[in-house]
Each structure stands twice: as C-alpha cells, then as structure tokens.
Structure prediction request, 167 residues.
Amino acid sequence: MLGFPNGSGVGGVGPEDLAQLQSTMRAIELACSYIQINSNPVAAEATILSLHKSPQPYKACRYILENSQVANARFQAAAAIREAAIREWSFLATDDKGGLISFCLGYVMQHANSSEGYVLSKLSSVAAQLMKRGWLEFTPAEKEVFFYQINQAILGSRGLDVQFIGI
Prediction:
C-alpha cells in the first residue's frame, strides 16, 4: 500500500522511515521559504522538483500534508501527489488509486475551515482529476463511495465549511 488506504495514518512506519519523512518535510518547507524570500531559488526549485519527480512520493506527501505548518509545503505535496499519480496511474493498484482519491477528499473535508483555501482547492482538484482519470476503471461500487463522501458534505451534516467545500 502507498500509505493511503481508507484514511489510515503513517502507522507501521519504523524510526528510520519516520526520520526520512521528517527530513523530507523539513527540506520542502525550507525550499518553500527560500522561494518566498527569493534566497537561492534555483536550489529551492530543484528540491521541490525532486519531490514532484520522485517515484511514488505518496507517503512523504501525506506526511507533509498532515504534519507541516507551512501551507506552501502542503500545496507542493498536493501537487506532487497529482503529478505522480497521473504519471504512475497505469501501474498503481486499484485500491491505491481509490485510496489516493479518498485521502484527498477526506483531507479537504477534515480541513474545510482552514484559512489556506488554495491548499484545499489544489487537493479538491487532485481528487477530481484522479476520479476523471479512473472513471472507466472504477466499479459502480467504488464510484458510489466517492459520491457518498461528496454527498454527505453537500447535505451539510458536518457544518457550513464542509458543505461549501462539497459543493
């Protein structure tokens, strides 16, 4: 699994893996900061590009989304998920494809009241693009799971922020 099944966390990650995830997050956060202050932008862009071009960067991206306090780092992680998933779509397992979409939708719903709307917009866009990408591959039951998540948000049972995001 790629670290996205049914919204589960980074559980089962050993200390070496956790240290690597933290190191990756710090590097991306620092690169985002360097770009904002225009300090060594070439190296900063190279660091961010390395995340985008990494094979299966999903665990690192999820870790960044769930733990980073830097909104631009979370935005870059969302963009890297999109890029990698589209690039690797043909050899991702069906469960992993669905897990990526469910994670994106769940994250957006869980953080609907966030002040960083551009991060949520990016993740919503990623979920929509991946749903479109896999539309012909997904079974009706798999499609129903995605629509159920969105429908629950639209009904407003989780508050106005979630309803707005669902719409």
User: Anything to note?
Assistant: The CA atoms of residues 109 and 162 lie 6 Å apart. The two ends are 30 Å apart (CA to CA). The mean pLDDT is 86. Helices lie at 15-36, 41-53, 58-67, 71-88, 94-110, 117-134, 140-154, 160-166.
